[in-house]
Amino acid sequence: FKWRANNENQCSILIIETSRCGKFFDEFSLGKSYRVRAPWEEGVVYVNIEIIKHFIYFLFKKYSFSRRMLMSAWVYAISKTTKADKIVLFYLSSKPIFSTVAQLNHNISIYCIYPYLVTDNKNISIHKNIFHCVHDGTDVKRLINRNTNQENIVITGSPYLSLYKRSLSEKYISKKYDICLISQVVEELLKGSKSQYHQNVDKAFRKLLETLNSLYKEYSFKGSLCIALRLSSSKEIIEKEKNYFLSILTCIKVNFIENNP
C-alpha cells in the first residue's frame, strides 16, 4: 500500500485498465472520465482516507477476506471515491469480482467490452447493472446460456477491428495488396495457453494459412499479401506473432502492418 494524500479525480466514467489495454482508450473520447490501472497488476495499491473508508465498509458488508473479495472492495472503493456512475472495462470483462460491486452499489452501471469472442469460462459477472458489449450473435447465445439477460447484451462488433478500420480511415495507404488478412493469433496462445478454446481458434486459423500457402506454391501465385497484426504493447509479443506467420507462410512474401495506434 502507498499513501496518496489527494483524493481521486471525480468523474462520470471510471475506466479500469490493465497493461494489455495498450493505447486502446487513447483513441476514444469518453467525456468526463478517469483512467486507473488495476492494482493487482501493478502490485501497488494507492490509498487515501476516502478509499480506506469505502474499502472497510465493503468488507464489513460482505464478511469476507478472500483475494477476490479484496479486489471487489478496491473497485467499490474507487468507484465511490470518484463518484462515477459508470465503469468501463476492457480485458477484465469476464471477471466475477464486479458482480459483488454491482450488488452493493445500486447506482453504478458496469460496461464490459470483450476484446475477443466470449469463451466457455463459467466465471463471469452477471447482474442487472452489468452490460456486455460483444462481437456477434454467437456471443449472445453463449452469455444467455449462462443466465445473462438478453437486455444486458449489446452487439458492438470487434473492438480491434473497429480500431484498425479507424486507423486506416485516417491514413493514406499508398501500397495496395491482393490479399489482406487480420490476425487471429491471440496473445494467450503466444504465451503458451493450453485453453481448448484458444487451441480450437488456432487450429482453424492455421488451417486457413496452410491452405493459402499451398495455393501460392501449387499455382505459383505472385499476389501481394499483408497481415494486420493484433494490438499489443509488447515488442516481444509482436515479434512472436510475426514469426508465427512466417513459419507457416513459407512460400509467400508477407508484409506486416502493426496495429498499435
Q: Can you walk through the features of this model?
A:
The protein has about 260 residues and is an alpha/beta fold. It is about 40% helix and about 15% strand. It contains nine helices and eleven strands. A six-stranded parallel β-sheet has the order 3-2-5-6-7-8. The two termini are about 35 Å apart. The model has no long low-confidence stretch (mean pLDDT about 80).
Distance between the termini: 33 Å
SS element count, helices: 9
Radius of gyration: 21 Å
**Per the principal axes of the C-alpha atoms, what is the gross shape?**
elongated
Largest sheet: 6 strands, parallel
Main β-sheet, spatial strand arrangement: 3-2-5-6-7-8
Structural class: alpha/beta
Quick overview of this protein structure:
Helices cover 39% and strands 17% of the residues.
